[in-house]
Amino acid sequence: MKRSPLISIIIPTYNDSEVVCDAIDCSLNQAYDNLEIIVVDDGSSDGTGGLLKEKYGSRIKYLYQENKGLSSARNTGIRHASGKYLQFLDADDLIYDRKISLQLEQIKNISGIAVAYCDYIFSTIGDMTITYGERMSPVLQDEKPFDDLMMKWETELCIPPHCFLFDAAIFREYGVAFDENLPNHEDWECWMNVFALDPKVVFIEMPLANYRRRRESMCVNKLKMRKGYLLAIDKQIQKNKSNNEVVKKLNVRKKQIRCLYRDVSPIMRLMKRCHPVVKKMYNEMVPWRIQRIFD
Q1: Which CATH code is given to the segment(s) 7-218?
Q2: Is there a contact between 232 and 130 (Cβ–Cβ < 8 Å)?
Q3: How many Å apart are CA 27 and CA 15, to the nearest integer?
Q4: What distance in Å separates the CA atoms of residue 295 and residue 265, rounded to the nearest whole number?
């Protein structure tokens, strides 16, 4: 009898001892049992290692590295994964018990590389309440998912990493990885590289992932998010420089993001420190098109 394919669940963690066990427990509680759970400790100093070794022992593969950031921890997990499919799960997030079995059923017989993704709920730590008011749609259009990722991310579209189940060949054979030089938006930049390969994509219209946000989450720092997003777009422009149509769209998107985060642009941060009279003169005397140049 043919054995079900191995799934590798990759959980990066950094000083997350209060929540990482939630991520591990929901992984161990999956209805699908041929799993390896890889926890990559990115230099924690809060006793995470001792806690996990004592609580889980050989049930998980625990890897420790000096602090190098989230992208590095995910890439370390990829390198040590043996599974045919990869499930990324950040330490403060959750997946539901049938997620992997349902997604695998949809893509296991597809020839070529495949990606499954699902709906999700949005909550805060310690609160399982669905908060649809802050939640963006995860649904990609069928014909051009790459364009959707490029032009709608963070304004109309959001797909947390743990919504996906990836064919591991995408990372092993095609060299896709998380950019370790990006301060944020490394997930968007990675998904752009994934979808540039034109994989077969399957969406399950069920909330099988719980995206939990903490008060100190990176996404609440608009200045860092702005810088990271613009840097990620620049990297995609370089990677697609031979495709004029994609570069044109990315440049349009770059202008949109600068406008979206205009309140934390360099000139606006300077204006906040100026006298109200100076602010008024700037807004009245400097044409909008000129203002946009300094955004």
Answers
A1: 3.90.550.10
A2: no
A3: 19
A4: 5
Can you give the pLDDT at residue 124? 77
Q: Is the pLDDT reported for residue 19 higher than 90?
A: yes
Domain residues of the chain, as ranges? Answer: 7-218, 223-293
- Distance spanning both ends of the chain, measured CA to CA: 61
Question: CB neighbours (10 Å) of residue 66?
Answer: 7
Measured distance CA(236)–CA(247) in Å, rounded: 8
- Dihedral of CA 133/188/110/23: which sign? negative
User: Is 70 exceeded by the pLDDT of residue 91?
Assistant: yes
Say if CB 221 and CB 174 are below 8 A apart: no
Distances (CA, A) of 84 to 3, 4, 104, 173, 211: 12, 10, 11, 12, 25
Which one is predicted more confidently, 126 or 167?
A: 167
The three-state (H, E, C) secondary structure of the chain, written as one string: CCCCCCEEEEEEECCCCCCHHHHHHHHHCCCCCCEEEEEEEECCCCCHHHHHHHHHHHHCEEEEECCCCHHHHHHHHHHHCCCCEEEECCCCCEECCCHHHHHHHHHCCCCCCEEEEEEEEEEECCECCCCHHHCCECCCCCCCHHHHHHHHECCCECCCHHHEEEECHHHHCCCCCCCCCCCCCHHHHHHHHHHCCCCEEEEEEEEEEEEEECCCCHHHCHHHHHHHHHHHHHHHHHHCCCCHHHHHHHHHHHHHHHHHCHHHCHHHHHHHCCCHHHHHHHHHHCCHHHHHHCC
**To 5 degrees, how large is the angle CA 198–CA 204–CA 206?**
150
Neighbour-count burial of 187, counting CB atoms closer than 10 A to its CB (0-12 exposed, 13-18 middle, 19+ buried): buried
| Percent of the chain's residues with pLDDT above 70 | 82
